Amino acid sequence: METKQKFLSFNLGAKDIGVIQLQHITEVLQISLAEICGVPQMPNCVLGIYNWRGEMLWLVDLEEMLGYSSLLQGSHLVAKMMAIVIENEGKSLGLLVRQLTDIEWLNTQEMKTPSAELFSPALSPFLQGYFISPNEEMMFTLDALTIIQAPIWGNHN
Questions:
Q1: What is each CA distance from 153 to 59, 77, 96, 146, 157, in whole angstroms?
Q2: Which of 67, 68, 75, 114 is the most exposed place for a label (fewest CB within 10 A)?
Q3: Strand ranges in the chain using DSSP code E only, listed in sequence order
Q4: Which residues make beta-bridge pairs with 87?
Q5: How remote is the C-alpha of 107 from its chain's centroid?
Q6: CA distances from 137 to 4, 79, 97, 99 (A)
Q7: Lowest-pLDDT choice from 49-58, 86-95, 102-111, 144-153
Q8: What's the CA gap between 85 and 73, in Å, rounded?
């Protein structure tokens, strides 16, 4: 059985790396802050909506959602962010990250199971597991479906 799958890797916070399975990603686009329409009364990590192919795409600051500091804070403010559009059963969500790093071929059998004490409570619910890269870095495998179905979106997406 083929256990290697393609994952898109990206930076999380100052030094962490996150990966999401490519099969859940519809598109990757560059978005500047000016293109995002803010929406009041939403959780902090929801930056607003973006006109994507004529549809309203909700954009989420993935770092803030996972318990890192916000992409919009202080010296980390980035003028252009990368949005990873994930999709499931007709629902789409844009995950904003600082920058994409690579496409990785990872063997899903080598994915390690996360233990609660290793990861923050904000990150744990969205983790499928993690990989240790050849240069000993930990790569967090995020579960795109859990993120899309997260209760914090209510019925917005």
A1: 11, 24, 15, 11, 7
A2: 75
A3: 4-12, 16-21, 25-32, 46-52, 55-61, 80-88, 91-97, 100-107, 127-132, 138-142
A4: 92
A5: 20
A6: 19, 27, 19, 17
A7: 144-153
A8: 23
